[in-house]
Amino acid sequence: MIAYTARVRLLRSPTDPRWIDVALAELDRTLQDHAHCEKKAAASALKLVADHPERAGMVRALAKLAQEELQHFLGVLAELGRRGTALPPDDGDPYAQALLRHVRGGPRPEDRLVDRLLVAALIEARSCERLWLLAGALPEARLRELYARLAQSEAGHERLFVDLAREVDAAADARLEVLAEEEARVVAALPLLPRIH
């Protein structure tokens, strides 16, 4: 069994242990949701690229991240295909939507950018945690290995978003503390469903 080797450092609360039973009981739905998460992660990275083309280093890093997320999307789609399961329409992600409501507006565009990057970091951190949980509990060795690889990649994405936020604003860590507390409240308020978030 693959252990969840390191508690994701950004998260202020762990996932409810009952989530893994819910996710495994309706694994096809969990995989479908995961595919949508990977698709949206790629789209979000490209949206940041489109909105900030002047930040050359960030553009390169996020373009590479989007490419990785699309590879993950294809990997989960392939698994759905093996299981004879189609990808349904995307119902949206209440978790991500709730976090994005905390992104600042105001006169400083840097504040909005920092918050978008930190929200992305928190989403990646929660994804990483839950993918590790799946990697440790899935019944098939092939799936366990897939999810362990995906979780490791998500951990790298989490770090990238935090590093990018720090490059924009040296005070990003203080803002991260605020948003991490909000993330914990959002997770606590959501029902346990066969979803990655």
Compute the number of helices: 7
Query: Largest sheet at a glance?
Result: none
The global form is globular
Overall number of domains = 1
**Could you give the distance between the termini?**
23 Å
CATH architecture: Up-down Bundle
Report the structural category.
mainly alpha
Q: Poorly predicted ranges (pLDDT <50, ≥5 residues)?
A: 1-8
CATH class, anyone?
A: Mainly Alpha
Quaternary organisation of the protein chains: single chain
CATH fourth-tier homologous superfamily: Ferritin, core subunit, four-helix bundle
CATH topology assignment: Ferritin
Q: What is the mean predicted local confidence, pLDDT?
A: 94
Helix content: over 70%
Radius of gyration, taken over Cα atoms and rounded to an integer in Å: 16 Å
Order of helices and strands: HHHHHHH
Would you report the number of β strands? Answer: 0
Beta-strand proportion: under 5%
